[in-house]
Amino acid sequence: MGRKLIAGNWKMNGLSHSLSEVKSLKEKLTGSENCDVLICPPATLLASLADAAKDSVVLLGGQDCHWETKGAHTGDVSAQMLKDAGASFVIVGHSERRADHDETSQMVARKAQAAQEHHLTPIICVGETLAEREAGKALDIVLMQISGSVPENFQAQDYVLAYEPVWAIGTGKVASPEDIKTMHRAIREKVGPDVRILYGGSMKPQNAAEILSVENVDGGLIGGASLLADDFYGIIKCA
Ligand code: PGA
Prior knowledge:
Elements: E1 4-9, H1 19-28, E2 35-40, H2 46-52, E3 58-62, H3 79-85, E4 89-92, H4 95-100, H5 105-117, E5 121-126, H6 130-134, H7 138-149, E6 160-163, H8 177-191, E7 196-200, H9 205-212, E8 219-222, H10 229-236
Parallel strand pairs: 1-2, 1-8, 2-3, 3-4, 4-5, 5-6, 6-7, 7-8
Helix pairs in contact: 1-10, 5-7, 7-8, 9-10
The chain binds 2-phosphoglycolic acid.
2-phosphoglycolic acid (PGA) binds near residues 9, 169 and 221.
């Protein structure tokens, strides 16, 4: 596997003054980092962040997209719009979208397809809840979500997968290296050798080195710790 991908998901955080975090990150990055660096800000900040990140290695992405290109979908953002604003990636199927907006894997697959058609790389998120893990169903659930969420025509280079156990997101609880290893191995067997598989869920500068060294972990999807340049850079250095 090639370079790791360290992706920040700002979620519904960030105002115009947050541009300073990107500028500060840009100053820290030398260009000789061992990984690709991506920030997915709220759509309102995408264009100004694209401007702030110009001439740096920082890539930008959206956090969700509609499957249609345009039209009567009040409040939604299309893949084409994200591309136009400077994105090269888009997160689809994050567990918060699946929970808050009742997104099904079938909807996620349509979003991933739209992303690909508009030359964005979708980061397709999957992950089990605590109840599913405790019932011994984590592997089955995750593999089923992958089957439903990854369009059948996709090749390995068309997408990135993010395994994010729901109970580890924003909770400070991290899956153990052993659990991450088991899950990522199962995902690897399903998707083949060339798909980038990220881990997400309470990744911080303090635990990033251990998580990123687990076999078949090709990077991280980072929420809380991506908001401040110092923390995010601390994770980038571990890659
Ligand atoms: P967290 O979020 O790092 O704050 O746990 C990760 C994610 O939801 O992508």
